[in-house]
Amino acid sequence: MTVRLLGVGAAAPALRLAAADVGAAWGRSGRGQAAVCAPDEDMLTLGWDAATRAIAAAGIDPERVDALFWGTSRPPFAEGPSLAFLAAALGLSSAVGGALCAGSAHAGMEALAAGTDAIAAGSARLAVVVASDAVRPGPGTGFEGRCGAGAAAFVLGAEGGTAALGTRVSRTRPFLDRYRGDGEQDNRDLYDPRLFREEMFLPVVTEVVEALASFDVRAWSLPDPDGRLGATVAKRVGTHTPTSASVYAAIGDAGAATPLLGGALDMDAPGIVAIVGTGGGRTTGMLVHVDEPVPGAARVADALAEGRPVSYAEALRARGQLVPTGETIPMGVPPESAMFTRGADEMLGLLGGRCVDCGTISTPPSIHPHCINCGGPKLEPVEVARGGQVHTFVVNYTMPAPFVAPLPLAVLDMDDGARLMLQVVGDGSDVEIGRRVELVLRKYAHERGVPVYGFKARCRVGSTKDDAW
Amino acid sequence: MSWNKVAVVGAGLIKMGELFDQSYEQMAAGAFDAAVAAVDKGFEPRQVEAAFVATQRGTLWGQEGIGGNTIPTALGLTGIPCTRIENACPSGSDAFRVGAMAVASGVHDVVLVIGVEKMRDKSSEEGLLSRAAAGHPIFTRGETAPVLFAPFATRHMYEFGTTREMLASIAVKNHYNGARDPYAHFQNEITVDDVLKSVPVCHPLHLLDCCPQTDGAAATILVSADRAREFTDAPVFVAGFGVATDHPYLHEKDSFTEIKATRLAAERAYAMAGVEPAGIDCAEVHDCFTITEILDIEDLGFVEKGRGGIASLEGETALRGRIPVNTSGGLLAKGHPIGATGVAQLTECWWQLRGEAGERQVDIRNGYALQHNAGGRGSGVSVVNILTNRAS
Fold it and tell me: Residue B328 class from Cβ within 10 Å (0-12 exposed, 13-18 middle, 19+ buried)?
């Protein structure tokens, strides 16, 4: 059975760190920049962002998705409901299947392969593949300035779409490249860059790309862990500029997301796109046959472009590698407690209760047995609109750790009439009464070792057109 | 015709401030002694038949889980009935209302209402600021106290053209009054410029737009009206009161230019007391932030909706203005020891109605003083008490 590509989406985090700033701290030079997650972003929120865009681009109903495949080198729960949280936040059905692929930067290719196989086997008619990473390099390691973050998502189906998945080549060899040991937070440096280049990277990657080079490949997405190896591999397949080069330039090495981002970037024109990813002793290459521009592909470059420059210290703090002295103020409600069980769906799905009598939406349903407007007892669950405008707002400058000022909070009038009060992404400088906002998934806290997710508002920039953003 | 079934025959408070040298119990005893000493014809502590104690944040003083029973022992009155009232920032004003109802019901003739709060035993970060992490994990995350009122300032500015200078004029006025109140936490005058240039706390509110964290205690002695003359020849009567609730969360509010609970509570209190806003000689209102006083004076009917800012700037609520507000210095200068706040405001009203407010004394033409608190997350509760020196 053919496997069709219905749409793609991409996302990058808010911050950008110059490699020169990292180098300066360690007495080295540095080239380029990398994307870094703001404290409320991580591999799950990036994956949500990219998948939301891919689903919108493909024009499918999330409820109809049969399977979710998520590849990330580092799931938010080392052991826990990572895939379930992503599925709930995307509004997928509770009957959704799929798998979490993790443990190396190859995880994105594994998720793409698993999604392709599920459609081909007929076990899923519609699948969402997400590849996302927020690489956390050990401070002072040689690759630190190049380690980035980002996400890509593909919607695959048994029919429709403008492209098809094709030939796949894999190689597996048991060697150590970049890795983390059990219980370690930060990625270790390579043992020896020359050993990596000559014995681990080039032989295997070359084998895979040479196997694909017999096809008439128009665009290559190739791994480039150090800023030089990518060009070496490109030369071997006779291409000068792999599309992945602009991904590395914009956001650095986003681990599992990079190969899919490089591929998605060049899917707005017909021809064969080759996607090659490597990591954890594995390398996989896949071909995508593009007949007509893939929905969402034209927006990939824009999704990677924006970012606020930050200092090395701010980036370290955002990554959780620079922490304040002393104890932080604990969340009043422990994330393992009953309130989170009761509220899981309504927090991740942002549900409200619509009054059968007067139509008013009360949020969240679990604390509103009765309507806030008429007091009526009959409320039906609805997903609150994801767009709205600022009714009033504040910017909080005075909070104890772990909060970081400035923290904007806004009362929002949503497009369906619901009113919400949520944190606003950013420093508040773009918030004003009447401003259009969209809701985005963010990490509210990392509490007792558990990430806590919910929606925040983001001010819409530029276009006022109601599009997939 | 006012309600007037209950009389206040004694009232007093301790000097407000960061009372690191006093325990909760010592503060309570100090306030009780002051109220007893204020009874004109003398008062024996043992005459107290029952007590109602307002303490909002029991967790701030390390005696969690204790109800009213700390107070009788602290006052040497072990054995009397004592009940703790917790109703957010209006805890003190609501304890007063409950005490008045206990007397009016005929169950008790002499009741002590005492408010006590220890705000400063915990560090700022572990105290009030820690509420940034409390409550709903998403909908209230980052919600410190100023977040509950600053959205009203943003919207009031947007709809009515209220300015930061108008907000600042309230802090300036209340510090001016506080500088004339020996019980106030802050006894210094400030300028509009001081307020504008103070550090931002929660946009659009800056440091001097906010009340301090204050330790304090205040007490009032209530008796049935028909026994008032046993204790004083100048009794002050409870003319009326009103309490109202509104949705607790900000996102449930209809309006960010009024505190609905205050409007409803005021309507009820005015009806019970048989008095109009224009009949009030002075008022102690909830100015936890400058914007709150603007909303209060509008919602209590002292000025037209939207005119709170300009009226304050033009001095209508100053000590010698048309309707003096917060002659004690208010929460901004006198301080806001939460459970004690309402009782301390009532003490100021009692002094004003008896002509005992010294340098702060206002002209009592009609014989009515109003006291008000609002609070409870997004001002989910408001209490208004009206006192009078008129016997009927």
Answer: buried
pTM of the model: 0.94
Closest CA to B129 of B65, B206, B202: B202
Known catalytic membership, residue B89:
yes
The token duo for B353 is 């109605």
**What's the Cα-to-Cα distance from A391 to each of A249, A371, A382, B153, B301, rounded to whole Å?**
39, 21, 22, 12, 25
Q: How far apart are the first and last CA of chain A?
A: 32
* DSSP at A266: T
Mark whether B282 is an active-site residue.
Answer: no
pLDDT in tens, B186-224: 999 999 999 999 999 999 999 999 999 999 999 999 999
In A366-449, at which residue ranges do the beta strands (DSSP E only) sit?
379-383, 387-396, 407-414, 419-423, 436-447
- Looking at chain A from residue 183 to 242, which residues have their Cβ under 8 Å from any Cβ of chain B? none
Tell me, letter by letter, the H, E, C secondary structure of B127-162.
CHHHHHHCCCCCCCCCCCHHHHCHHHHHHHHHHHCC
CA distance A160 to A168: 21
ipTM (interface pTM)? 0.95
Residues in chain A: 469
| Torsion of Cα atoms, B39 then B41 then B45 then B47, to 10° | -110
Side chain identity at B294, as an amino acid letter? I
Compute CA distances A254 → A71, A152, A180, A237, whole Å: 12, 10, 16, 23
**A390 contacts on B by Cβ (under 8 Å):** none
**DSSP-assigned letter for residue B281:** S
pLDDT bracket for residue A467 (50, 70, 90): very low
Cβ of A399 under 8 Å from any chain B Cβ? yes
Considering only the beta carbons, identify the residue of B134, B142, B200 that sits closest to A332.
B134
The helix or strand, by DSSP H or E, that contains position B243, with its residue range, turns out to be: strand B236-245
8 Å CB contact between A391 and A413: yes
Minimal Cβ distance to A400: which of B129, B139, B143:
B129
Cis peptide before A364 (omega within 30 of 0): yes
In whole angstroms, give the CA distance from residue B33 to residue B28. Answer: 9
Is B203 within 8 Å of chain A by CB? yes
